[in-house]
Amino acid sequence: xxxxxxxxxxxxxxxxxxxxxxxxxxxxxxxxxxxxxxxxxxxxxxxxxxxxxxxxxxxxxxxxxxxxxxxxxxxxxxxxxxxxxxxxxxxxxxxxxxxxxxxxxxxxxxxxxxxxxxxxxxxxxxxxxxxxxxxxxxxxxxxxxxxxxxxxxxxxxxxxxxxxxxxxxxxxxxxxxxxxxxxxxxxxxxxxxxxxxxxxxxxxxxxxxxxxxxxxxxxxxxxxxxxxxxxxxxxxxxxxxxxxxxxxxxxxxxxxxxxxxxxxxxxxxxxxxxxxxxxxxxxxxxxxxxxxxxxxxxxxxxxxxxxxxxxxxxxxxxxxxxxxxxxxxxxxxxxxxxxxxxxxxxxxxxxxxxxxxxxxxxxxxxxxxxxxxxxxxxxxxxxxxxxxxxxxxxxxxxxxxxxxxxxxxxxxxxxxxxxxxxxxxxxxxxxxxxxxxxxxxxxxxxxxxxxx
Amino acid sequence: xxxxxxxxxxxxxxxxxxxxxxxxxxxxxxxxxxxxxxxxxxxxxxxxxxxxxxxxxxxxxxxxxxxxxxxxxxxxxxxxxxxxxxxxxxxxxxxxxxxxxxxxxxxxxxxxxxxxxxxxxxxxxxxxxxxxxxxxxxxxxxxxxxxxxxxxxxxxxxxxxxxxxxxxxxxxxxxxxxxxxxxxxxxxxxxxxxxxxxxxxxxxxxxxxxxxxxxxxxxxxxxxxxxxxxxxxxxxxxxxxxxxxxxxx
Lengths: 452, 249
Prior knowledge:
The complex is a heterodimer.
Chain A lengths: L6 H19 L20 E4 L3 E2 L5 H16 L5 E2 L18 H5 L7 E9 L4 E9 L9 E7 L3 H19 L10 E6 L6 E6 L6 E2 L7 E6 L5 E10 L2 E10 L4 E3 L8 E6 L5 E6 L6 E6 L6 E2 L9 E6 L6 E6 L6 E6 L6 E2 L7 E7 L5 E7 L5 E7 L5 E3 L7 E6 L5 E6 L6 E6 L6 E2 L6 E6 L3
Parallel strand pairs in A: 1-3, 1-4, 2-4
Antiparallel strand pairs in A: 4-5, 5-6, 7-8, 7-30, 8-9, 10-11, 11-12, 12-13, 14-15, 15-16, 16-17, 18-19, 19-20, 20-21, 22-23, 23-24, 24-25, 26-27, 27-28, 28-29
Helix pairs in contact in A: 2-4
Chain B lengths: L2 H21 L23 E7 L2 E3 L4 E8 L3 E5 L3 E3 L3 E5 L5 E9 L2 E12 L13 H8 L3 E2 L9 H16 L5 E6 L6 H21 L7 E7 L10 H7 L1 E6 L2
Parallel strand pairs in B: 2-8, 10-11
Antiparallel strand pairs in B: 1-3, 3-6, 4-5, 4-7, 7-8, 9-12, 10-12
C-alpha cells in the first residue's frame, strides 16, 4: 500500500493546522483547551512583573529569586506577553498605594497588568504580599491578592512564586490552572544506573526517587499524583526481567506490584486511577493487558495474529473509553486506537510509510502527540487531531525528538531530544515554540508530566 | 716380560749355580734339601676407571658410563647396574643426581672408582589446563543470532549460529538458557522493548524447532537498554540487533 507522494497536500494540511493551533493559543478563541480570559480583548495581555520589594536588606536575595521565578513562569505560560524589565518604570511598588497606574500602562511598558509585592524575612519565616492589578482600570479591585508565609528557604520561595504565577495564569486563562506547580518524572543515568527522578516543571529541584541499581524505565504518574508506575528490571521467576513497578510518593518508596512471566513494560493509567494497561510477553509475544491498580484482575486486551508486538498503550484521559497504542502487526510500528476493553481496533492512517511510536493524549482527549520517523527523516514530534486526522509537525531539523508528554494545561509538551548533542529533557509550547532544555547532566529520558 | 717374572728367573739361576757348586765337592754326602721355591710374586692389584659423559643432564636425559679395568675378575657398578664386563659402556638415565661406583675385584684385591652424574630438574611443566567450566564452554560455543533493522525474522547466518547453539544445549542436558532480545538505539524505548521480545521469542521458536526442549528456554527483552556496542554507526547497530543466549544462573 505504497501511496503516491502527497507532500504538497501534507504541507497544505500542516500549514492549515499550524494556523489552527496558533489561533487556538490566543485567548480570543473559545477552544476548550485554551479558554479565553474575560474582558481582555483579542491580544494576549501584556503583563509586567515588578521587582518584589524587600522590606529589609536581608530579604533581597529571596526577593530576586521570587521575581525571577514568577517572570519565568509567566513568560513560558503561552497565554500572555511578558513586559521586558528594561521597559519598567524606575520605581517598583511594594504596596497597592505605591502603584503608579499611568507609569506602567504608558509606553514603553504598555502593561495591562502589573504584578508586584513585598517580602519580609526573619530567620524563621518569609512573608510575601503579592498582587496583580489591572492598570488600565484603576477603579477595579485587584485581580489577584495573596499572602504567603513559610520557611525562608529557596525551595519555599520558589513554591510561593509558582503558586502566585499559577494564580495569575488561572485568572488570565479563564480558569484553566497554570502548571507552574507541576512536576516532571523522568529517567536519568547520572548516578550510574537508570533511576526514576522528578523535577519541578521548570527543571529546578531535580532529585532521584529510586536507587534500585538496575534499569528503570517509562515512568507514568497516577492521576492523583500519589504514585508513579514504571518498568524496572527485577528478579522474577528466577531471572532478571522487566516488571511493572510502583513508587509511592506518599511512602517515599517502591511498593509491591504483581510480577508476570516475560517482559512487562509501558504502564498507562486509566483516567480514574483504578486500572492500568501495560504491555507484556507473558503469553509469548508482547500484547496489551489491563490490571487493577491494586494488582488484581489482570486481563488480556489485544490478540494480534502472528508474531507481532503491541505496546505503548495510552488511555484517553478525558473519556476513559478508548486507548491509543503502537503495534507492528502491519510490519512496522504504527498508531492504532481501540476501545479500552480491547474491542474495535482500528489503525490511524498516516500519509506515508512512517514509523510511529510514543503516543500521548492531550488532556482534553482530542489530540494525540507522537514521535514519527518519516521514511527519509529523523524522529520528530507531531500532533494529530484524532477526529479530523489533521497533523502538525511540532519539531523539525533538531536531533531526534521523542516521547512527548502533555502538561495538564494542554498548552505545554515535555519531550526528549538529542538536539543538544546528548539525550536530554526539553519542554516547549504545544505549537513547538519556546523549546528549552530542562536537564544537562548525564543522559535523561522518558519525561512524564504530572497530571496536576 | 714384567719385572716380576725377570726377578723370578734370575732367582732361579742363582739357585741352580749354588746347587752345582755344592755337588762338585769330593765326598758323597746327603744332598741338602732343596731350597724352598721362592715365594710366588704377589698377584697384581686390579685397576679400574669409570667415566660419565656428559656429567650433567636434565632429568629424563641419558648418560654414557664407560669403564675399563685390569687385573679384575669381577666388576660391579652400583647402583642399579650390577655386574659388567671388564671393559664397556652403558647408558643410564638416573632420575636424580647419582654417584656411580664401579668396584673391580681381582686376585690382587679390589678397588673402586666413581663418576657422578648431576641431574638437574627440568622447569615444571605448565600446569595442565583446567577443564573449561560450563560457563566458559557456553561462552565459547554458543553464539548470537543477528537481525535486520526492525525485524525479528531468523536470517540464514542466524540459522547457522542457532543450529550450533541447539547442539550445545542438547549436549548439556538440564541446562537452562535465557534468550535475551536486544535492539539498536533507534526507535523508542517501549517499542524496542517489544521488538526485543519478538526477537527473543523468534530465537526460542527456532531452537525449539531444532529439538531443544522448550522448558530449558526462557526469554527476556532488554530493548535498547544493554547495547554491546555504543556508537551510532550501522556496524554498531548490527551488533546490537541480536538474540543473545545466556546461561541461567
